[in-house]
Amino acid sequence: MEFQRDKSFVTGRLKSFKFAFIGAWKLATTEHSVMVQLSIGAVMTAMGFYFKISMTEWMFQTFAIGLIVAIEGLNTAAEKIADFIHPEYHEKIGFIKDIAAGAVMFAALTGVAIGAMIYVPKFL
């Protein structure tokens, strides 16, 4: 089957949205690391409602959750591409995968810092 570009702006965007939704669903239902991050995000959202956090706190929390899940998705994509290109262990592929995992760690640490700034004062 040959790829055919949709020349209509509206239907092209609708198809793009459909593919994005399918990708997000695959990511959320097949990748354990994303399942964990989404679960933590759900707990943090519930805590936000419980503690009645401010609009500014909601913005930072929502941004942090989105950042972490998005970077986790990019990490997963990089790993899948690397595994497809070179299924056996290779030092350079391992280096690339480690860097992608490091990006997730930076995002997660940012999320932890934001969560701590929002919720630690509420417990004190």
Automatic annotation (TrEMBL):
It is a multi-pass membrane protein. A divalent metal cation binds at E31, E79. The active site is at E72. GO terms for molecular function: ATP binding; kinase activity; metal ion binding. Substrate binds at E72. GO terms for cellular component: plasma membrane. CDD domains: UDPK_IM_like (cd14265). Mn(2+), Zn(2+), Cd(2+) and Co(2+) support activity to lesser extents. InterPro entries: DAGK, DAGK_sf, UDPK. Its cofactor is Mg(2+). It is found in: Cell membrane. ATP binds at E31, E79, E88, Y89, H90, K97, D98. One of its GO terms (biological process) is phospholipid biosynthetic process. Keywords: ATP-binding, Cell membrane, Kinase, Lipid biosynthesis, Lipid metabolism, Magnesium, Membrane, Metal-binding, Nucleotide-binding, Phospholipid biosynthesis, Phospholipid metabolism, Transferase, Transmembrane, Transmembrane helix. Its main location: membrane. The chain crosses the membrane at residues 59-78, 99-120. Belongs to the bacterial diacylglycerol kinase family. This is Diacylglycerol kinase family protein. It comes from Flavobacterium stagni.
